[in-house]
Amino acid sequence: MADKDDKAKDGKTEPTAPTAADFIMTPELQEELDNLSSTQRAAVLMLLLGEQQAAEIIRFMNPKEVQALGAAMVSVADLSQEAVNIVLDDFVSTLKKQTSLGLGTGDYVEKVMKRALGDDKAASVLSRIMPGQGSKGLDILKWMDARSIADMIAGEHPQVVAIILSVLEYDVAADVLSYLPGEHRSEIVQRIASLETVQPSAMEELEAIMKKQFSTNSSAKSSSFGGIKAAAKIMNFVKVEMEGGIMQGLGKLDGDLMLKIQDNMFTFENLQAVDSRSIQTLMRAVESEMLMVALKGAPDIVKGKFLDNMSARARLMFVDEMEARGPLRMADVEEAQKQVIRIARRLSDAGEMMLAGRGDDFV
Q: Per-residue pLDDT tens for 329-339?
């Protein structure tokens, strides 16, 4: 008792938990924070929340987000207490700056989408961005692995398969396609590219098929799926050795459609979005002569992407030799660019480089 009185007289209080302000920002701590991605910061918060609250949040995430967050939660297991506190304080600070704009916006977003896009297209967009808006029968597919989906739909009509692939993530759809019979792939891609709006009767048939495996409620709304861009994005994720056969078969079914799909696939110009390390990996795999021809007719931004990843001496020699070649036939340039893209996709398939945006829209 006397000790407590003495502490009170001295003005001392019981110790409290340290906050970010209590830590000295050492170079090591700063580096630790700089190396944290936004996903890892979110993972720290999830670990601090506790099992029940974290599970409630994860319930609203899509499969890719869950996978990324789960991996991040494992990766931050050894994070220092100082870094954890700073991440938490940053979150609290950000939260204090928020307004009530996010409250009750579901109806507002839905009305805006419908007014801007019309009911059909709005329904398709809302099914991707808002929980509970899409068909439960189709949504459950996003949580299945590619082989299981392929096994389930292998015996269905190509039109049904096309619709199902159109609602999947593009890389997953490409994997499912690889497990389906080779003689059907070209027709399926053709049907994906030809899709625009799926009528209620077709959706009811599709959901009836889903009910073989899952219990769901039918939604008799027409929905927008597929299209040439969707087909091109799926083809971007198809393995290079499989692509030729599919495109050849598609050319026999509909040559014009094949060309439109090719026009929307990953192109040489898209390499401007690839990170420097991947560009360096690609340059090591491509013969210097082929790269010179490919870059001869490339936009300056793409040309600069490659030149910036050369040493000053190598860049000077490369440019001098490229300019000494004089004019080249456009057909030769385009062929060289196609060869470079094929090599890039093989490296991407092997996990040796990242084709940033592969399967995404490009601007």
A: 888 888 888 88
How many Å separate Cα 272 from the centre of its chain?
17
| Pair 207, 218: CB distance under 8 Å | yes
Q: Tokens standing for 173?
A: 């759809």
In the prediction, which pLDDT does 55 show? 77
Residue 257: in which H helix or E strand, if any?
Answer: helix 255-264
Q: What is the pTM of this model?
A: 0.41
Integer CA distances (angstroms), 282 to 307, 335, 341, 358, in order:
13, 17, 9, 15
Inter-residue contact 131 to 139 (CB < 8 Å)? no
Please name which of 92, 47, 39 lies closest in space to residue 67, comparing C-alpha atoms: 39
Per-residue confidence at 280, pLDDT binned at 50, 70, 90?
Answer: very high
What's the whole-number mean pLDDT along residues 266-270? 81
d(CA 215, CA 157): 21
Q: What pLDDT does 362 receive? A: 36
State yes or no: pLDDT of 45 exceeds 50.
Answer: yes
Whether the CB-CB separation of 83 and 32 falls below 8 Å is answered with yes
Ramachandran area for residue 61 (φ above 0: left; ψ -120 to 50: alpha; else beta)? beta
Q: Which residues of 207-230 are buried (b: 16+ CB within 10 A; e: fewer)?
A: bebbeeeeebebbeebbbbbbbeb
Q: Are 232 and 170 in contact (CB under 8 A)?
A: no
Residues whose CB is less than 8 angstroms from the CB of residue 167 and which lie 6 or more positions away in sequence, other chains included: 138, 141, 142, 225
What is the distance between the alpha carbons of residues 20 and 27, in angstroms, rounded to a whole number? 15
Query: Among 144, 140, 150, 167, which residue's Cα sits nearest to residue 234?
Result: 167
Higher pLDDT, 102 or 284: 284
Which of 302, 262, 253 minimizes the C-alpha distance to 279?
A: 302
The answer to whether 154 and 180 are in contact (CB under 8 A) is: yes
CA distance 216 to 39: 32
